[in-house]
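A student in our group prepared the protein record below, which I am reviewing. What it holds is a sequence and that sequence's fold in token form. My question to you is simply how this chain folds and whether the tokens agree. Do not assume that whoever made the record got everything right. I have pasted the whole thing underneath without changing anything:
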Amino acid sequence: MADTFQLIMKKGPTPGRVIELTQSEITVGREANNTLQIEDRVLSRAHARFDRTATGYTIQDLGSTNGTFVNGDLLSGPHALKNTDVISFGDAVEVEFRRIADKADANATFVIPAGKKSDATEVLPTRAALQAELAKATDPVAHAEFHREYFSRWFEELWNKKNYAITREMVAAEFTAHGAGGQDIKQGPDGVAGMVKIWHDAFPDGHMTMDDIITEGEMSTIRMTFRGTQTGEFYGVPASGKQVEVTSIGIDRVVNGKICEGWGELNMLGMMMQMGAIPAPTQGGQEFDIETNITPEHVGEAYAALASGDMNQISRYWAEDMVWQVPGHNELSGWYYSRDEFLAFMGKVGEASEHSFRMDMIAGKVLVTGDYSVDLTRNRGHRKGEAEKTLDIEVAHVLRWKDGKVVAGKGAIFGDGTDQYDQFWSRSPVVTPPTH
């Protein structure tokens, strides 16, 4: 029987994923029309191509922005792949090419035949050997238990015992945060410790619990809850003496026993309401429970009304006393406390982009649960007078609804999109957001 070929993702969205190579031509890129779609913004829409040959596969770059590398060397043309070659698409996605001998004897190895030019005998792993290796490296029970114990210790020592020194042990020097509910976290262990100190100064009795953890490969997704009493200033909000309870979601990458990347989002809007920093929706002086039946189609109609500029349509979907938070650190960032303020903000967006700015909902990326909706949009445009200064990022929105209208909302940007967003809307690279 013929040898078979695989790619094993070592670094990227789904570490440990095994991809069988069976087609004669396999394209790789960010867009859905590729044979192998990898949804990472480091990849170009059409990034690279594998071609089947009589002896295996070759790979070549398709003019990508960030390049294709084999064993660290940038490709300039087709390259014949050898067993265990490491292929990098930019610097964020890495796969290993595997050639597997599929002999009748599943425990045999394949040796290059005599007479074939080779400086050394190349021993290829059998399918059985490769499967055993993968099973050992990705034992789901042991792997998940390690991550649970690892992050249990992390929350207990850092968040609950205020042991800031543990960041030097558990956080990589090159650690980078990609979005943290609007917080600006500096790189490395000291950046993480500094962020946690801000919470401890504002909530000295604060306590963090880890509610759930799901692990796959290097990545762990964690749902956590923070509870505490605000007796100190918190990001400009004076001490209120009020108790807060806020749930957040964190995604962390652990490599060689250290956290090297993190993505996070928390209900900062709800937290600000609990501290009294922004008003909670009220009715007759009493807080009300929002009950509504919102669908993804309804969310799309609300955005369409906003794009139309028709006030009659806008009024159907956007409440007069709505509040909205714009993320980032630029001249437009901050809180807007009414529909008029929100529409004035949208007017500034149009003026600054020569009305080229557009926000397109990504099909199938709308989640509705109760009185909340979450959607993903693609934001594009260019700056007024600076056609070469363009924006093309994905932004998530969390909307809260009452009687079919948006009463509160906020945006969230992840990864490199945060820097692109701030640089696009700022006259300078980083500014202090306006406050209300």
